[in-house]
Specification:
It is a single chain. The chain is mostly beta strands and 380 residues long. The chain folds into two domains: 2-30; 85-99 and 154-379, Beta-galactosidase, Chain A, domain 5 (Distorted Sandwich). It contains four helices and 26 strands. It has helices spanning 2-29, 131-141, 155-158, 354-364; strands spanning 34-36, 42-45, 49-53, 57-62, 79-80, 95-101, 147-152, 165-168, 172-180, 183-184, 193-201, 206-214, 219-227, 232-233, 240-245, 254-257, 272-274, 284-291, 298-306, 312-316, 318-320, 324-326, 328-336, 341-351, 370-373, 376-379. Strands 8-9-11-12-24-19-18-15-16 form a nine-stranded antiparallel beta sheet, covered by helices on one side. A hairpin with a 3-residue loop joins β8 (165-168) and β9 (172-180). The longest helix is centred in the first third of the chain and has 28 residues, at 2-29. The radius of gyration is 24 Å and the shape is globular. The termini are far apart.
Length: 380
């Protein structure tokens, strides 16, 4: 009897081990996110996105199938752990076309990209007779300072899946994404490379970012268009109470109440900046003061700092129909030869007040290049 009992117990034990082994194998074989807890941040990666968790922030960088746009920080994911607030737009540091000054009127209706997107479709409808389309163009781009695409697609909208590189250091984590433009306007060559490097330093409520272009084309006035820090979604100021633009209205900058954005207006009507018409400021900061939609209580400021003011070619904060403030910033806007590069460096994050933004700006100002490897990160 005892021998039989022992044999039964051994059989049960073997069955239990087999069940555990099968479950473990199924778990290992199933597609799942990988997590890395080394150093100053936790990184979770799957086929769709990379999630960064630092002691101060959380952010998601999409690789495919984004919530909204494919570039920069994904919509609704930039979390300030100190206050619980998130950005109030469609993502941060979103990238568009590679562009230049000029008109595309001669070829905008004849040239199409491989995916059917009209090359001149989103720039200037100079030949457009439909009043609705002309009004959209005026509200989106204004009525002056003509511009055209050099290379496309609009990366945030039509970029194919990417596989960013993750870089780890002692007190930071970084993500580097590259992509080549796929088509060009008449007489131009496609293939310029865009690189976006994002560094999340330990202990900070902001990230440091660089956008770089390695050009395969010549241009007298080439620039890269982005959103710095990002657009603002709102209904009569329910998500923000005020905006701050450091480069307007003197050395202290301009604080604008949200009520100024209750009605749509084009980029060249108010709150615009052009390097050829404005004095280059000491600091170039664009920020909005977050507001709790339920209670109306003020939260932190979400700010974008462009660390070398002279790199800004044009910038605006305009209210489009549909409850969105577009915070376009165009960088470089100078002659470029094929084989040359240009870049801009930014800091984007949460701040308790405007003075804190300027203090961080003073610490890092004057740089356009960001470098990161296992030994550390630095601005140049």
């Amino acid at each position: 009897m005892k021998a039989q009992l022992v044999r039964d117990l051994l059989t049960i034990h073997k069955l239990q081990c087999a069940v555990v082994l099968v479950a473990a194998c199924r778990f290992l074989a199933a597609p799942a996110a990988s997590a890395d807890d080394r150093g100053s941040a936790r990184i979770t990666e799957d086929d769709r996105a990379i999630t960064i968790d630092t002691d101060q922030l959380q952010a998601v960088i999409p690789k495919s199938h984004p919530r909204h746009w494919m570039t920069g920080i994904e919509k609704g994911t930039f979390l300030d752990k100190k206050t619980g607030f998130r950005e109030a737009g469609d993502g941060l540091m979103v990238i568009d076309w590679l562009m230049e000054a000029g008109s595309d009127a001669e070829y905008s209706e004849q040239v199409f990209a491989p995916d059917g997107e009209g090359v001149g479709r989103y720039t200037w409808y100079e030949n457009e007779t439909d009043p609705g389309r002309r009004e959209y163009a005026r509200m989106a781009h204004g009525s002056s300072h003509r511009k055209r695409m050099v290379e496309g697609p609009q990366l945030c909208h039509r970029m194919k899946p990417v596989q960013p590189e993750i870089i780890r250091g002692k007190d930071f984590v970084a993500v580097k994404t590259t992509y080549q433009y796929e088509y060009a306007s008449p007489g131009r060559t496609p293939g310029s490379q865009w690189t976006q490097l994002i560094v999340f330093p330990k202990g900070e409520r902001y990230f440091v970012l660089m956008d770089q272009i390695d050009s395969v084309n010549d241009s007298d006035e080439m620039f890269l268009r982005n959103d710095t820090p990002g657009c603002v979604r709102h209904e009569r100021g329910d998500t923000f109470s005020e905006m701050y633009l450091s480069y307007l209205s003197g050395p202290k900058g301009l604080v604008i109440p949200s009520s100024e954005f209750f009605e749509p207006f084009p980029p060249d009507l108010k709150f615009g900046y052009r390097r050829d018409t404005h004095q280059t400021p000491e600091h170039f900061i664009r920020a909005y003061h977050l507001r709790d939609q339920e209670t109306g209580a003020d939260g932190p400021w979400l700010a974008g700092l462009t660390l070398e003011p002279s790199v800004v070619y044009e910038a605006w904060a305009s209210q489009r129909p549909g409850g969105i403030i577009v915070m376009i910033e165009e960088v470089h806007g100078r002659p470029v030869k094929a084989g040359e590069s240009f870049s801009a460096a930014h800091i984007v994050g949460y701040f308790d007040n405007i003075d804190d933004m300027h203090a961080v700006y003073e610490k890092y100002k004057g740089h356009t290049v960001l470098v990161a490897d296992e030994s550390g990160w630095r601005l140049e």
